[in-house]
Amino acid sequence: MKKLYYVLFVLMVSLLLTGFSCDKYAKAGQLAKDFAATVLVAQQLETQAYNGGYIQPATHTAIETRFSQLADAGVRLDQAINQAHNAQGAKAQVDVAASLLSDLSNNQITGIKDDKTRLAVQAAIVSCQAILDNIAAFAQ
Amino acid sequence: MNASNILKLLSLIAAAEPAVLGYIKSLLENTQGMTGDQFLSEADGIWAKVKANAQQQLEPAPAPPAPQA
């Protein structure tokens, strides 16, 4: 369980380290990459907790299903950013990803009975939402 | 906390969780020269990994071998 806190610490630090670029397309691309990387870490965190016996199989299945849908939405988000060459054409895909993260946060993760694990996974999802909010800001 | 302590802490974290090492590296590497296309290409690669991980987790466990007569 200590490892979970290490991972969370890194996630929080990473939010402060997200790079800055003058080019809006490059910046949107960099945020999209950071978003994908943070979702991957959140997924690895959840899987590790499941393998450790902290998450019930039914909850694990529901969460992994959402991660799979999130991966599909992420690819579509990348395509939208690429087509518009900024984030302005990507609003619809940002909304889809935000909806999936919200469902994870409000409905699926609440099924984790172990308090520490639930908080750790919740914090990782919040990190994902924070980066997505930055992309959404570009999409305005 | 000075820079040396931060680096020491990051080393401890990386040693504790190898999966995090790649993540830190990807965030700290010099990305100034990367284009939007390159970032998106890397993002797509990461999404493919998320998808593959999810599929692996969602696969039903293999059925136990049938008892031999």
Structure description:
The complex is a heterodimer of chains A (140) and B (69). Chain A contains 5 helices and no strands. Chain A is an all-alpha fold. The relative contact order of chain A is 0.18. Chain B has 69 residues and is an all-alpha fold. Chain B has one domain (3-58). In chain B, 70% of the residues lie in helices and 0% in strands. At the A-B interface, α1, α2 and α3 of A face α1, α2 and α3 of B.
Helix content of chain A: over 70%
Count all strands of chain B and give the number: 0
Q: What's the gyration radius of chain B in Å?
A: 20 Å
User: Helix fraction of chain B?
Assistant: 55-70%
Total number of helices of chain B: 3
Strand fraction of chain B: under 5%
Low-confidence spans of chain B: pLDDT under 50, at least 5 residues?
none
Count of strand segments of chain A: 0
CATH 2nd-level architecture of chain A: Up-down Bundle
**End-to-end gap of chain B:** 68 Å
The protein's oligomeric status is heterodimer
Tell me the series of helices and strands of chain B, N- to C-terminal.
HHH
What's the short version?
Chain A is mostly helical. Chain A is built from 5 helices and no strands.
List the helices and strands and how they pair.
The complex is a heterodimer of chains A (140) and B (69).
Chain A: H1 2-17, H2 24-51, H3 57-84, H4 91-108, H5 115-138
Helix pairs in contact in A: 1-5, 2-3, 2-5, 3-4, 4-5
Chain B: H1 3-16, H2 18-28, H3 36-58
Defining traits:
heterodimer, A: 140 residues, mainly alpha, Four Helix Bundle (Hemerythrin (Met), subunit A), B: 69 residues, 3 helices, 70% helix, flat
